Amino acid sequence: MRKTTFSVLLPAFLMAVFSSQATAVDIQAGQALHDKHCLKCHDTSVYSKDRGNIISLEALRTRVSRCELSQGLKLPADGTENIVQYLNTRFYGFE
After folding, report:
1. Which of 52, 64, 77, 79 is surrounded by the most beta carbons within 10 Å?
2. Which of 23-27, 28-32, 55-59 has the lowest mean pLDDT?
């Protein structure tokens, strides 16, 4: 019985560990991308919950995606989410 439980749980555990590492957000990479691309158009004073433009994490994702499209950027696959999480961590603090 123990061998069966172990043989079922170990693969599930390993999949969970490796999949979470593969999708982990890289805040430092987000900051680097932000500093390279976003600061060309504006400074950090535009990032504020009080301005009313960005009211949720989803709204922040939408804004970053729009900026990416409008500037014709070709970010890495996880680049947009890394920028979003950097901005959220540094300026917004959405849950």
Report:
1. 64
2. 23-27
- Domain total for the chain? 1
Length of the chain: 95
Residue 55 forms part of a structural domain: yes
Q: Which two tokens stand for residue 64?
A: 């970053």
Distance CA 52, CA 18 (A): 38
Q: Please state, in angstroms and rounded to a whole number, the distance separating the CA atoms of residues 46 and 42.
A: 7
Residue 50 lies in a domain: yes
Residue 11 lies in a domain: no
What are the residues whose beta carbons fall under 8 Å from the beta carbon of 94, sequence distance 6 or more? 56, 57, 60, 88
- 38 DSSP 8-state letter: G
**pTM of the entire predicted model:** 0.73
